[in-house]
Each structure stands twice: as structure tokens, then as C-alpha cells.
Amino acid sequence: MNLFRALTIEQALEILRAHIRWAPQSEKAGLVEALGRVLERDVTAPEDVPGFDRSTMDGFAVRAQDTFGATEGLPAYLDIIGEVLMGSAPGGSVSVGQAYRIATGGMLPAGTDAVVMVEYTEQLDEHTIGVTRPVAPGDNTVRRGDDITRGALLLTAGRRLRAQDVGLLAAAGVSRVSVVRPPRVGVITTGDEVVPVDAALAPGQVRDVNSYTNGALVEVNGGGARRYGVVGDDFELLSDTVRLALTENNAVVISGGSSVGKRDFTADVINSMGKPGVLFHGLAVRPGKPTIGAVVDGKPLIGLPGHPVSAMVVFELIVKPLINPTASKLSLRARITRSLSSPPGKEDYVRVALSYVDGVLTAEPILGKSSLIVTMVRADGLARIPLESQGVSAGEEVEVIPF
Amino acid sequence: MNLFRALTIEQALEILRAHIRWAPQSEKAGLVEALGRVLERDVTAPEDVPGFDRSTMDGFAVRAQDTFGATEGLPAYLDIIGEVLMGSAPGGSVSVGQAYRIATGGMLPAGTDAVVMVEYTEQLDEHTIGVTRPVAPGDNTVRRGDDITRGALLLTAGRRLRAQDVGLLAAAGVSRVSVVRPPRVGVITTGDEVVPVDAALAPGQVRDVNSYTNGALVEVNGGGARRYGVVGDDFELLSDTVRLALTENNAVVISGGSSVGKRDFTADVINSMGKPGVLFHGLAVRPGKPTIGAVVDGKPLIGLPGHPVSAMVVFELIVKPLINPTASKLSLRARITRSLSSPPGKEDYVRVALSYVDGVLTAEPILGKSSLIVTMVRADGLARIPLESQGVSAGEEVEVIPF
Asked: Looking at residues A138-150, what average pLDDT do you find?
């Protein structure tokens, strides 16, 4: 238990993962539904692609050796003995001095090993061409299995399918795949001062932002968000809601309760749910200090800060890696336009706007108090100032997590 | 008409846009459904956010001037006359030498203008604190309207809503927005040699990849794809399908027909649909040369190459800007690992894998024939070699469009 030590992101994730027991369920998906889903298991190729030797050009299928030495001055003359029809195997086979007319994608007739582009031929009569440039065996062709060899590993488990991945599956004749069922994440907002977005606002009240931002981030990360709305600071009521959310979901995020008293309150509710309960209280991260990390019966419960901006930053750093472990890890490097100080012993995440200035990717810190959601709207990403650093100087290169 | 001149991407888009007449329809969406949708009109703030002066810390709401000069040795003593309850307006008001207990997010009582963090106070008795550090007016508070001022422009028309944008709307009490109805795009694959993904494959046949890749790219770009399957090279059949697709959609993509004869065939079908018909035949782009651009009755029809890879590249360059004009234009700059030659007068788009090598974003060209879909699966983006360039040298910086 590390209740009284502020953890780094890596330490926090390690402790959570040590207690999470989550065997994702799978389901079958056709290729249209599979876009954006995560493969549950490796997929191998059931057949060669292409399934036959193909032309990649419009022209004539030939025996390459018949064209050796051909020039414009002294073409190689070949008899046209047929035409390849698209989508069927050519009937005949080609012997010395013969050729088949062929279009892009056509199947090479038996005996041929190359294609002469139509641009390098001259039609002498209906049945004869002169080839004005030699071809080597294999020229302007794709061989059976060149793209995909039967039995080869096409895509590995855990991959999130993009358009081209779905295309690869289609090419190989894989029409259904086993995909991971999206994690269901319960989203709870707490706070006596928080009211629904369409309520009339009394003095002292604020609108529920976190249900929307946290729910949206669940969906952006491929999960299914179940929203439980706003729960007041009532132990029984919050306990009932958290218990229900734990039953109905693979993970739960609770936002609010970032002030000292409320944080303890949220932690008490979580601890009353089961074992091991709260694993840490506080992150060495700015913004995001008052984060609670817990696991109950193998399911993660994350207590996010109440400030929408801090909640979004912690979601990005803690919740996203848990619910979307295959998310791209590719961060950017950008030159920061202002010097920023950072207390050592804290990772700082600074909202930045990105642009190219004189060809250099540049990160402009967004000014404004961290509680202001408009700062997040203006931002393109988070610049990271590492734990050990005391700050960055204007013009220095920083790591930026885009969003 | 530019039928015989290969156009640049910019020229092609300009010609298409000059003929497209497309007034996107709008619909209302709640904040949950609004994620990822495009705003149809500007949204202004109906109220100030926050709606009252708030504390950003746990501590005591004070009159800042009462703390001036306070030190640990000589604290400023204040009477605690009440506690701010979350979600309601404090009843009393604060006079000289008085303070209210307040938590993060609480509403400042009348008369106060700053918050002293609890860490800089000492509790003397139940009703008295000593403040050991002065605060300035405004310290540890957010003022009414600091985040959003009533009437201010929140988000502009054309913006695709991210999690934080939805959060901003929620904060301002905007529970429904007017969003653009997603463009519907008809997806047609042609070719006698192309068979559905779950068909038995005869020699000379290949599977339909483009229906899946093009359909997926429509969806990735926020559109709705309507798939018409594979149509053989039959003028009447293809005409009927294109006509239906034009009726049912805002745009149509037809893939296949990249060989000379087939290209003319597809162009003839398109021209038979109406005016102005085919606007260009061929792009100065590699891969992607045999692209057809057309508009019929104000709707774009794009004839994509038959090769899945070429079709995807042209989709990215031509179709995406038409159906998803608000897509991020932020490209990356990366150091290319190999020298590549490029014919002048052609824009080259080279598939690359991206990674950081010694802190520098590096683009490794994916080798392999352009017809191989596996090359696209291995790639993270397209490196662009401009029209006028004859190539790039290893180590040079190139522009990369990520995908």
C-alpha cells in the first residue's frame, strides 16, 4: 500500500496492473464491423495472394527470353495467339515466339514469365507485334503468393484494425475475425455542487462536465461508456451507484472528490466495495495530484480529480493505458515557445497548441488556470516535463502527447 | 475539360469543387451523440462559467487586505464566522478580520476576494485561525466568467467535436447542438475478375478488397458508407448501379477500371449519367495516375484506381478533402532513411513506417511493389515527394501524412 507516497504514472500503472484480473471476452465480427476493433487472436492467411501469377501492366504476356536483345531498330517479332480475359484462366499456353494480349490484373498464360508494356510494342498486323525493349523474367508481373503466402501471419492479436488491415483480411479471403469485446466503463460524477447540463443553475452550482468528457474519452478509446450521472456526496447513495457500476462494467471512473475531505470520502466508499480497495492516493503529476487508484475484485476503479482538465489529463495517463492498451504510443517532439518551471519530483503536463514555424514543429503553451476547460479546447496535446526536470527553456525540445 | 493533362492534387480538387453543389443538411444532437460530429453553426455561451466566484483550493475565504504583512512569526488572526457548503450560496458576508471555511469549488462569500490555503493557516481554537502568509486579491480563486463569458464564441462552425469540446459545451449549459449530417458515400467496385470476399476463388479471380478499404475510409472520415458490392464490366449493369448510388448518396467512389480500356469504359458510364460528367482523367501522382474525377448534378464521382493501395492513396488525397474538409491538416516532418528518386512532374507518395531514432522522427520507406496491400499494413503514413523534386536523399527531411 502506498497511500501516503505520490506515485509516478509508471508506478501507478504497475500497481494497478498487478491487481487487475481481466480476461477480455471476444466476439465474431464481419469485415465491415471489424473496423476499429481489436483482434482477439493472431490471423494467418488461408490462401496465397494473389492466387496466380498476374500482370501489373497492360501489354503482352511473353517468354522473357524471346525479347532479349530487342531494340527499336531490331524489334523481336512475336505471334499473338490469344487474349487473356479478366477473371478466368487463359486456355492456351505460349511457346517460343508467341505472346498473349493481357490487361493489368490478368492471369499469365502457361509458358510466359513476363509482360511487355504496350508502350514498348508496335502492332505489325492483327496477329504480330514487334517488341522494342527487352524484359527480364518477372518484369511487370506479381507472382502467386507475392503479397501473402498461405499460412503466413497476417495480423497479430491486440491490433486495432485500420482500413488497410481490413483490406488485407479481405484480400486473403478472411471474412470474419475474432475481436475483443469493447471494455465497458462506468462513468460516475460526484459532488453536491454539480448539476446536470440542462438544469437551472443556482448560485454555487456548476454543471456536470466530467460525465461528458470522461464518457467521450472512453468512446474515443474504443470502449463503451455507461453513464450514471451525478451523485451527491452521500455515502449510501454513492456506494450503491459504485456497486452497481462495478457489476455492470469492466472498470469504473469516479470524478470529483478532489478536495481533502471529499477524497477521503470517495476512498472510503471504494474501500467498502471489496478487496484490495484503494492502492494509492495521489500522483506525482501536475495536474492530477488528487488521483485515487483502486482495484476491487480484479476491476480497476479510478478516482479522477474533480476539475475537468485534471480529470482529462489523468484519464489520458492512467485510464487510457488500462482500457486501450494497444493505443499508439507515438508521441511527437516539438520546440517549446516559452520557458516553464516545474517542481522536481513532479511530472508536469502542459497543454500546448501545435504548429509548424519555419518548418519546425512548435508547441505553444496555453496560458490560463488549470481549472479552465477552454484551455483544453485550445490545446492539440500535452507537453511532458519529466519528473526529474526543474523546467524547460524556450526553444528546448519537449515530448508532446497529441490528442 | 482537362482530359489529356495529368493534374496535380490541388488542380484536381479545384476543378471538382468548382462543380460540386452540396449544401450539407443538419440535425440536432445531444452531447453524448455529438462526439466526433461536425458543428453546423457557431455556438455562443448562454451563461458565464463559472457563474460565481469560486475557490480553487481548500482553505479560508478572506479579505486579502486582512492578510497583508502576515508571517509565521506574526500571523494575521481571523474569526471563522461560517463554512461554505458545496452547491449553495453562503448566507453571510465577511467583514474586517473575518473568514469563512471553504473547500475547492466553493462559492466565495460576499466581502471576500481571496482564499488562503489551509497549509498556510494555524487553527488556534474552534473560531480562530492564524494566517501565516499573505494573499493578494484573487489568489486561489476563479472569478465569475473567467472560463467563459456569456455571449462569447465557444466553438465555430465546421469544428469536429472532441471530448474537451463536448466538455466545454456541457460547462456552458449547451445540451444540444446543430451538427452536420454525415455525408453518405456510395462505394462501388468494378471488374470481371473481382469476387466477394467469401466466394470460392477460381484461377484468374481476386477478392474484392476495395469495397472494404474504401468503405472503411469513408467511415474513418465521419461519413456513412453504402456499399454496392462488385459489378462486372457490363455497361448497363454498371450504369444502373452508378445511377442508384448517385440518387442515394452525396458522393460516389468507383474503384477498378484502371487499365486503359476499362478506364474509358468507366468514364463512358459516368458521362452517361449527366452533366458536367468527367472533368479529368489522370493525376500527376504516383501511385494514382489512372484516377477519374467527375461531377454529375453537383455530386462528385471519383473513379479510383483498381489497385487497393493506389485507391487508398487517392482516397486520402482527393476523396477525404471533399467529404471531410475539417480533417486535421497537420502533417509530420521526418528524416527519411533511404534515397528515393522521383520523376519530375509527379508527386510521389511513399509508404513509410515511423519511429524515433536517437530522438529524431524517422521515416523508413516500405519496400515492395505498389500493388501489395501488405505494404500499406506495415505503413504509418505517406511521405510526400513534391511535384518539382527529382527525389530525396537519405537523411533529408520529408513531409509525412500520418494515417
From this structure: 93
Contacts of A351 (CB under 8 A, 6+ apart): A309, A365, A366, A375, A376, A378, A379, A381, A382, A383
Mutate to test the interface with A, among B43, B85, B86, B214 (most CBs of A within 10 A): B86
List of chain A residues whose C-beta atoms are within 8 Å of the C-beta of residue B86: 191-193, 204, 233
Q: Residue B105 and residue A356: Cβ atoms within 8 Å?
A: no
Q: Which domains does chain A have, with CATH numbers?
A: 9-25+181-323 (3.40.980.10), 26-49+150-180 (3.90.105.10), 54-142 (2.170.190.11), 332-402 (2.40.340.10)
Q: Which residues of A93-108 are buried (b: 16+ CB within 10 A; e: fewer)?
A: ebeeebbbbbbbbbbb
Beta partners for residue A30, in sequence order: A176
* Closest CA of chain A from B217, distance in Å: 6
Q: How far is CA B282 from the centre of its chain?
A: 29
Cell of B274: 449527366
Residue A147: per-residue pLDDT: 87
Of A162, A181, A152, A185, give the one whose Cα is nearest residue A29: A181
- By C-alpha distance, which of B164, B231, B177 is closest to A216? B164
Full 3-state SS string of B124-180: EECCEEEECCCCCCCCCEECCCCCECCCCEEECCCCECCHHHHHHHHHCCCCEEEEE
CA dist B227 and B283 (Å) reads 25
pLDDT tens track for B98-133: 999 999 889 999 999 999 999 999 999 999 999 999
* Structure confidence by residue, pLDDT tens digits, A344-379: 888 999 999 998 888 788 999 998 776 678 899 999
CB A352 within 8 A of CB A365: yes
Burial class (CB within 10 angstroms; exposed 0-12, middle 13-18, buried 19+) of B239? middle
Answer yes or no: do A262 and B233 touch at CB < 8 A: no
Contact criterion met (CB below 8 Å) for A164 and B312: yes
**CB count in 10 Å sphere of residue A194:** 26
> Which candidate, B78, B43, B47, places its Cα nearest to that of B63?
B78
- Give pLDDT tens digits for A255-289: 986 666 677 789 999 999 999 999 998 999 999 88
Whether the CA torsion A49, A51, A56, A62 is positive or negative: it is: positive
Mean pLDDT of chain A: 92
* pTM of the complete model: 0.88
Average pLDDT over residues A234-238: 94
Positions in chain B short of pLDDT 70: 1-4, 257-261, 329, 370-371
How does strand A347-357 pair with strand A397-402? Answer: unpaired
How many Cβ pairs within 8 Å bridge chains A and B? 277
Rg of chain A taking only CA atoms, in angstroms: 31
Angle at A124 between CA A123 and CA A125, to 5 degrees: 100
Cβ distance of B374 and A163 shorter than 8 Å: no
For residue A310, what is its C-alpha cell? Answer: 485534471
